[in-house]
What we know:
The protein is of the alpha/beta class and 273 residues long. The chain has helices spanning 15-25, 46-58, 83-103, 124-144, 165-175, 186-189, 196-202, 228-236, 254-272; strands at residues 2-6, 29-32, 62-66, 107-110, 148-151, 180-185, 207-212, 242-245. The chain has one domain (2-272): TIM Barrel (Alpha-Beta Barrel). It is 42% helix and 14% strand. Helix 3 packs parallel to helix 4 and helix 7 packs parallel to helix 8.
Amino acid sequence: MKYAICNETFGDWPREKAFSFASECGYTGVEVAPFTLAPEVSAVSPALREQVRSEAEGAGLEIMGLHWLLAKTEGYHLTSSDGQTRKRTSTYLIELAKLCRDLGGEIMVFGSPPQRNREAGMSLESATDNAVDVLTAALPAIEDLGVTLALEPLSPKETDFLTTAAETVALIERLESVACRLHLDVKAMASETKSAADLIRQYASYLVHFHANDPNLQGPGFGDEDFAPIFAALRDVNYCGWMSVEVFDYEPGIERLVRESLSYMQGIVVQAG
Length: 273
């Protein structure tokens, strides 16, 4: 298993300090939220792209990709009824894929719940058609860049579009692109009727990336979620991608969350033999 940490976890820490600490804890990858670099992807200069990649590599880390793709941006939306907004969003996703490639990454996780929620009165069918329009326009270029867009089902508390793995896989199948696959998140899967382990086994052929966290919004091992069945399922389906720690509640403290989340997961792997 390859372990990464989402970079926004470190708050206002200098990047080099954050990368160094992640490496010291045993992570080998980092997942970048674009808003931590600049408000818009166009503002991430070639020099900054090279600098961030160099800082990560200097700490012994690989930038495996991006997440929170549309967070803290304006004018972009996956399911918008406005054709110009959809066109802008397609173009922006392509620009994000260029950033991902320049940083050395291969995965872009599409979560961004506010930028995919349905408009008032919009049917699920219309929202899906609009999303297909956006993604169909973007995916050929994303594929050419060697990047995979990983769609993330989120709980109904977070969004009203793509709230289950089944809905997300149905969209992936409709798109028919090798550059569009499935991302699973432990926190989000807690709202499903099936267990996380069952979902992993059911949709293994689509799975390209994974977020580790607890439904309490802290790190793995900080709540009641037992990760042993999750890791057993990932092992059973021969998952060899990244396991990225994504935390939303930092109350235990950054250093403890970063260090103990990884040690908890490593302990489960050791126990499983």
